[in-house]
Amino acid sequence: MGLLTEGIPLSWPETKALAEHVRRHGIEQFINHYHRLKDRSGDSLKWGDEIEYILVKFDEQQKKARVVLKAQKLLDILNEKEETNPHACKALWRPEFGAYMIEGTPGKPFEGFLTHFTMLEANMRHRREEITDLLERDECILSMTNFPRLGCEDFTYPSYRPQPNNPQSQTMSKYYPDETTFSGHPRFSTASRNTRLRRGEKVDIRVKVFRDRFTKIPVEGSPIDEPDVVQLDATGLGMGCGCLQTTFQASDMHQGRVLYDQLATMCPIMLALTAASPIYRGYLTETDCRWSVISASVDCRTPEEKSFIPKSRCDSISSYLSAEGAKYNDIPLPYNQRDYEHLRQGGVDHLMAQHIAHLFVRDTICLLSEKVHQNDEEDTDHFENIQSTNWQTMRFKPPPPNSSIGWRVEFRPCDVQISDFENAAIVCFIILLTRVILAYDLNFLLPISRVDENMKTAQKRDACRKEKFYFRRNIFNASVNTESSSDSSSNGDEEENGFQTNGYHKETEEEEEDDEYELMTLCEIFNGKSNTCPGLIPLIFDYLKTMDIDSNTYGTIEKYLKYLQKRASGEILTDAQWIREQVLKHPEYKHDSIVSERITYDLLKRIQEIQNGKFTEQILKSG
User: Which of 54, 422, 444, 567 holds its CA 20 to 30 A away from the CA of 505?
Assistant: First the structure.
């Protein structure tokens, strides 16, 4: 979840009173850090993944499955191993939002050797086995995006009840007990409470129910104005979803900015390809992905702010960072003009200054008493406080202070997959795609508004097979318009409610836009379309032909890429569609959209078998 420094959290009134202090010093810290490191270059490719797992307990007699709240107990054991012998750890473990969640990463980054792709799946398998060795016989660890009955009655072990009428509750949720939030670090419960207090009401997450023959409308608990939605009312019901994230090191800041922009357009594409979460609070829904749910779960905007801050703090990016991307920044970008000018006067270029100023539109939602006063010349905690609580599809990450780590880019949209094979295939593809982008000077840039449209499309039911996405026709276009250089100042800005927007004015005719991009299926984007798109995976195969690669490594990569080709074509289902099929054909399913205790139990048991290697991925996805 980002920054996890130790300390005592301040109350919301105390935190709110210090919001300007954090903002002012956070920006000053970034300026100082930026100048120390902006010319750093020559870093090699290093990369790694993060998988957020859920811990499940099965009741074999009653045929029930619950999330088991024992992440802290496991972390105590795992962290002791790391502290005792850090160099021997094949995996590192960190807390996540839910007390039933745990995040696993490789013990050290992989590097730019193609052979390292043969180590990835084995490392993921090791992580799963390392946790499994610490569990009881009736418990397991699942790489599953959302526990199907999260928010239903009695979904935790031990069992706790929500406290919707208790003003001391962090969420006052009707569905999510406070004990379900990880208690081993104050950031999680504090963020949950302060999100509610800042917005002045509980979070309001709404997911359209999948209407089957006997679905009852209104849905239980639905709001009066939308009787056909599954409503969720707690941060944990979104942040309690798992994901797959990939971080890689760029050679320098410029390369990082280019890859940040190019991959931003791939976020909705990969979200659709990795869709894995069709069930919320025990209902089949019309979405296949977690993204809009998690976005609403941390939306701390007040009603007034929503008129000039169009997105939650967890959403798709709102501006590109490279000079090549500047002309495609076509949506309003709210930021405080004073913060922007502070950055510009501090020597930060226009595109980076507006990006940072935009992040700092948000207040801190968790501040520790020990971290209020810092040395802005050396510390970066105030900057990271805001940076790490902007959960966007991409994150541009400056090097940590006094570290050998360079400029990094984090790719964040993917739902986590059921099997290690699938997760390894996704990570392998993303890292290879960054190499192909650089080797062939590819250009995926679209207007940000089109990327936002693609994000909405990606979350529709069965978007992978049924929907089309805006994508560039000529991705080999190396001569993009760079008149809006990274050091140009903003023009035509409009101020609203004390915030500035970038005031973009659309000058390109629709016919000219159509020459740049068109609507394509995922099959066409990944596998190719005659005279328009060569296909991302054929391009990767072409790239591999130029490399010195042994047959074993090539075979591993080929297996991953061909699998993704079949998923993009619809020959192999996404996890979300496979999960739907398991529910719809279950003998207990009553065609009422409800995923019962027994259906959940059987589904998770099947997933456990798949993760233990009893079924191949191809059998799994073909139903």
Answer: 444
Instruction: Map residue 529 onto helix, strand or coil.
Output: strand
Query: Can you tell me the distance from the alpha carbon of 479 to that of 28, in angstroms, rounded to the nearest whole number?
Result: 36
Per the structure block, which two tokens stand in for 241?
């979803």
Read off the pLDDT of residues 256-303 as tens digits, 9 standing for 90 and up: 999 999 999 999 999 999 999 999 999 999 999 999 999 999 999 999
Distance CA 128, CA 124 (A): 6
Residue labelled with tokens 């259906």: 599
Distance CA 464, CA 471 (A): 14
What's the rounded Cα separation, in Å, for the pair 511 and 270? 28
Amino acid identity, position 80? E
DSSP code of residue 138 = T
- In the three-class reduction of DSSP (H, G, I as helix; E, B as strand; rest coil), residue 403 is classed as coil
Q: What's the whole-model pTM score?
A: 0.94
Contact 185, 208 (CB under 8 A): no
- Report d(CA 378, CA 233) in Å as an integer: 40
Tokens 């390392």 belong to: 130
Three-state SS across 455-489?
Answer: HHHHCECCHHHHCCEEEECCCCCCCCCCCCCCCCC
Tell me the per-residue pLDDT of 10-22, one tens digit each, with 9 for 90 and over: 999 999 999 999 9
| Position 515 confidence tier, pLDDT thresholds 50, 70, 90 | confident
Only one residue has tokens 């081993």, namely 184
pLDDT digits (tens, 9 = 90+) for 570-619: 999 999 999 999 999 999 999 999 999 999 999 999 999 999 987 654 44
The one-letter amino acid code at 222 reads S
Cα–Cα distance measured from residue 67 to residue 210, given in angstroms and rounded to the nearest whole number: 24
- Per-residue model confidence (pLDDT) at position 481: 42
Report d(CA 507, CA 170) in Å as an integer. Answer: 48
* Residue 354, Cβ density class (10 Å: 0-12 exposed, 13-18 middle, ≥19 buried): buried
pLDDT in tens, 232-260: 999 999 999 999 999 999 999 999 999 99
User: What number of other Cβ atoms are within 10 A of residue 553's Cβ?
Assistant: 17
The C-alpha angle with vertex 181 and arms to 270 and 58, in degrees rounded to 5, equals 80
The single-letter DSSP state of residue 87 is G
Q: Are 217 and 229 in contact (CB under 8 A)?
A: no
Q: pLDDT at position 508, please?
A: 42
Please tell me the distance from the alpha carbon of residue 511 to that of residue 336, in angstroms, as a whole number.
Answer: 35
* Residues 6+ positions from 15 with CB-CB distance below 8 Å: 9, 194, 363, 364, 365, 366, 367
Structure tokens at 144: 């599953």
Q: What are phi and psi of 35, to 5 degrees?
A: -70, -30
CA distance 102 to 51: 8
Instruction: Evaluate whether 207 touches 286 at the Cβ level (below 8 Å).
Output: yes
**Residues in Cβ contact with 73 at an 8 Å cutoff, skipping those fewer than 6 apart:** none
Over residues 371-384, the pLDDT tens digits come to 999 999 999 999 99
**Pairing status of strand 64-68 against strand 156-157:** parallel
Q: Helix (H, G, I), strand (E, B), or coil: what is residue 502?
A: coil
